[in-house]
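Tutorial handout. Part one gives the primary structure; part two gives the three-dimensional structure as tokens.
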Amino acid sequence: MRRADRLFQIVQILRRSSRPVTAAAIAEELETSKRSVYRDIAALIGQRVPIRGEAGFGYVLEGGFDLPPLMLTADELEAAVLGAQWVAGHGDQALARAAQDLIAKIAAAVPERLRPHLLDASARTPPAFAIPADQVDAGQVRAWIRSGRKIALAYRDAEDRLSERVIWPVVVGYMEASRLLIGWCELRQDFRSFRLDRVVEARFLDERFPARPAALRAEWLAQWREMPPD
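Part two.
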């Protein structure tokens, strides 16, 4: 690997981590020596890249630093397009359109030599299943999640039982054959999931729920990770 490429990759490694990254971990990923990493870190700091840390503790990239967009490797490009293809096939209408726009923007911005990786990618997603139509606007659901406001649902479950719930929305889950609204249910006092195609009625309330959306999402994620596998 050329030294210029290695310097770029070190910045990428630090940028994607929220915790200090040791020279040993960087060296292992880049298949080089710790001594080379120490020299490269010193060179980056000399070029005014805001890296904090020291040998034996680890390094972090301070906020506010960024690199020019779309300096992508072939693998990074295919990863981005693969993700966008999946969203185009499984996302709600707004996200699917955004994914198609994203692919078009990447195609217009990447160098000519990288376009074959975009237009004729070796990594692809299979065609999406026929996902039942949502009975609620997923775009508005996502807006209420971001603003931390409650949603009142009339919902019909798999056994055709109708119930009414007030939930604190956490996340929209995009599955292979359905889309789910996951939230804290005031009735059950626990997290519950609701298929968007089974929503009978949704009222988007102005009332905010008391928890911070990010904290509630972290609580749900921790609970989900502790669930036993099927």
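Part three, for discussion. Residues 74-119 form one domain. Residues 68 and 144 are 32 Å apart (CA to CA).
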